[in-house]
Amino acid sequence: AQRQEEPQWQQQVSMEHGDQACTSSSEKTALAAARELYGQMPAAVAKKYGDVESYEWWEQHTDLFEEARQEWGMLCPAIYDLIAPFSDGCGGKMPPASRWLRPHVQSSLQDGSPAALRSVLQEVCCDSVGHKVYRVELFTDEFCDLLLTELDHFERSKIPLRRPNGMNRYGAILSHLGFQERLLEPLVQAVVQPFARELWPEWVGAADCTETYGFVVRYRVGEDVDLALHADTSNVTLNACLGREFEGGDLYFKGVRFTGSADDAEEWPVAHRRGSALIHLGGHFHGVRP
C-alpha cells in the first residue's frame, strides 16, 4: 500500500490510552521503555538490502515493541477487520460484505465466475510476451481515511517503527501493527487469490499464496520520493494507493524475470489513484517515479 501524503494529519484527537497508561503508573511500562528507545532507533539509510540494516537491534526489541503497541491501543478497531463476522441466528458465524471493499468488487467476488472477476479488472499495460498488469477500483474512501488515521495514531505513540522493506525507508510493516490475521490474510484469501488464479493459473495454484507480507510505504519530499526498478519476491503483488493529496508517484513496468520479457527495455507508465489497486506478478519488474 502506498501512502503519499502531506506531512501532518490535521484532525485533533483527545487523550489516548497510551498517554494515560504512561502518566498514571509509577512503574516503567512497556510503552515508556519503548519511547526511551525512540531516540536510539537506527537510521534507515540503505536503499538496497535495507531489510538487514540494524537487524540485531530490531530483533532484540521486537517483543517490547509489540507489548508497547498493545498498551498504546487502537484508535479505530474496525479497520483491523476486512470482514467482521456476525451471528446467523443459529450459533454460526457468517461473513457479511465488507464495508471496506467497493460494491462492484464485492459482487464480482461473490459471483466468482471468470466473467464476473474479469469485469472489474482493467488492463493497464502488457509486456512484450503478454504478461499484463491490471487495475481494480478496490477500497472505499472510508477505508483509506481510517487506515491512514490509524497509522497516524501509531506514529504519535513514539514507538520505534521498523522500515517496511529493503528498498523503502519510510513506512511500516503491517503485521507489526496488528493487521496480519484479520485484515491482510483475509484480503489475500478473499480478494487476491480469486483474481490471481483467474489471471495466472500457471503461476498461482491452490497451494500458492499461503503466506502474506504486507506493508505501507510513504513518499514525501525530504524522505523517499521514488523507487528503483525491482521485482518482488512474491507470486503476486497487490499494490494499493491510500492517497490523500499528491502529485506524481506514477509506477512504471517493464518485463517479467525468468521469462522471455526479462530484458524488455520499454517502460510502461501507470498512474496511481486513491482507492485503486494494481495486481501483477511479483516478478514483473517495476519502480516508482517522483
Cα radius of gyration in angstroms: 20 Å
Class computed from helices, strands and strand pairing: alpha+beta
The helix/strand series, from N terminus to C terminus, equals EHHHHEEHHEEHEHEEEEEEE
Shape, please?
globular
User: Low-confidence spans: pLDDT under 50, at least 5 residues?
Assistant: 2-26, 86-96
Strand content: 15-25%
Query: What's the N-to-C terminus distance?
Result: 16 Å
**Oligomerization state:** single chain
Share of helix among residues?
25-40%
Strand arrangement, major sheet:
4-5-12-9
Number of helices: 8
The largest β sheet comes out as: 4 strands, antiparallel
On the 0 to 100 scale, the average pLDDT is 87
What does the model show?
With 290 residues, this protein is an alpha+beta fold. It contains eight helices and 13 strands. Strands 4-5-12-9 form a four-stranded antiparallel beta sheet, with no helix packed on it. A four-stranded antiparallel beta sheet has the order 8-13-10-11, with no helix packed on it.
Index terms:
290 residues; alpha+beta; four-stranded antiparallel β-sheet; 13 strands; globular; disordered N terminus
Task: Give the SSE layout.
Blueprint: E1 2-4, H1 17-23, H2 30-36, H3 55-60, H4 62-72, E2 86-87, E3 93-94, H5 103-111, H6 114-119, E4 122-126, E5 132-137, H7 141-155, E6 171-173, H8 180-199, E7 215-219, E8 227-230, E9 236-240, E10 251-256, E11 268-270, E12 276-281, E13 284-288
Parallel strand pairs: 1-7
Antiparallel strand pairs: 2-3, 4-5, 5-12, 6-7, 8-13, 9-12, 10-11, 10-13
